[in-house]
Amino acid sequence: MIEFKGVHYPKSVILHAVFFYLRYAVSYRDLEEILAERGVKVDHATLNRWVVKFAPLIAARAQAKKRRTAPSWRMDETYIKVKGRWTYLYRAVDRDGQTLDFMLSERRDLLAARSFFRRAISANGVPERVVIDKSGANLAGLQAVNTILKFTGSGRTIEIRQVKYLNNIVEQDHRFIKRITGPMMGFKAVHSAAATIAGIETAHMIRKGQILANGETAFQIFARLAA
């Protein structure tokens, strides 16, 4: 259970506020106004603290509970502005568009790519193949992972394909993330950006049906992950 002790608002209010921010294209000041119209007075700084604190905790539970994904992956990066500078959001989906993993990085290089692939494999298992763009860093990162698998695993390595049109599915999937982050006007710190994006990705996973619904609404699924 995620601990809500020490907060001065009901758990349901916090979860509704966090979910609405992560699911819909609103700013903290927009959300502050929306809540005030419903009789809940909470300032935008408090809303920010709630998102940064609770979003990554719920995201971790969503990652553990998501439906099984396909062994054919599509990986790409998109850009997120943090402290006025562009950072790199590494993302991977399977052949059906289901979210596998994501990672915010200040660099776009071999070390970042290798870290992302190792993280995604840890959460989802070793894929049969991964489609990437023409990035030399991503290719080198996958090759480094293959070297590790060759000598420490079963000997089976990952098939690497660099075919741009096959990556359209992940490029299209970036759009939801960008649509939600757009009104946020950039982030002030990397850790808060990573926490917020983890929550946005979770809301997107719920929207795509990756968490078993049991007849629940999207918010009810989100709240169950926090239970």
Please give a quick description of this structure.
This protein is of the alpha/beta class and 227 residues long. It has helices at 11-23, 28-37, 44-65, 110-124, 136-152, 168-181, 190-207, 218-225; strands spanning 72-82, 85-94, 99-105, 129-131, 159-161.
Overall radius of gyration:
18 Å
Strand content: 5-15%
Q: Report low-confidence residues grouped into runs of 5 or more.
A: none
Q: Counting H and I runs of at least 4 residues, what is the number of helices? A: 8
Number of domains: 2
Strand order of the largest sheet: 3-2-1-4-5
**What share of the residues lie within helices?**
40-55%
Sum up the overall morphology in one term.
globular
Instruction: Output the structural class.
Output: alpha/beta
CATH architecture of the largest domain: 2-Layer Sandwich
How many DSSP E strands? 5
Q: Biggest sheet: strands, sense, closure?
A: 5 strands, mixed
CATH class term of the largest domain = Alpha Beta
Mean pLDDT: 94
What is the N-to-C succession of helices and strands?
A: HHHEEEHEHEHHH
CATH evolutionary superfamily of the largest domain: Ribonuclease H-like superfamily/Ribonuclease H
CATH topology category name of the largest domain: Nucleotidyltransferase, domain 5
Distance between the termini: 5 Å
Protein name: IS6 family transposase
Organism: Sedimentimonas flavescens
Keywords: DNA recombination, DNA-binding, Transposition
Domain Integrase catalytic: 52-226
Task: Tell me what you see in this structure.
There is one protein chain. By secondary structure, the protein is α/β, with parallel strands linked by helices. The protein folds into two domains: 11-67 and 188-225, no CATH class; 72-173, Ribonuclease H-like superfamily/Ribonuclease H (Nucleotidyltransferase, domain 5). Helices cover 52% and strands 15% of the residues. The protein has helices at 11-23, 28-37, 44-65, 110-124, 136-152, 168-181, 190-207, 218-225; strands at 72-82, 85-94, 99-105, 129-131, 159-161. A five-stranded mixed beta sheet has the order 3-2-1-4-5, sandwiched between helices. Strand 1 (72-82) and strand 2 (85-94) form a beta hairpin. Helix 1 crosses helix 3 and helix 6 (168-181) packs across helix 7. The longest helix is centred in the N-terminal third of the chain and has 22 residues, at 44-65. The chain is globular and about 60 Å long. This is IS6 family transposase. It comes from Sedimentimonas flavescens. InterPro entries: DDE_dom, Integrase_cat-core, IS_Transposase, RNaseH-like_sf, RNaseH_sf, Transpos_IS6. Residues 52-226 form the Integrase catalytic domain. Keywords: DNA recombination, DNA-binding, Transposition.
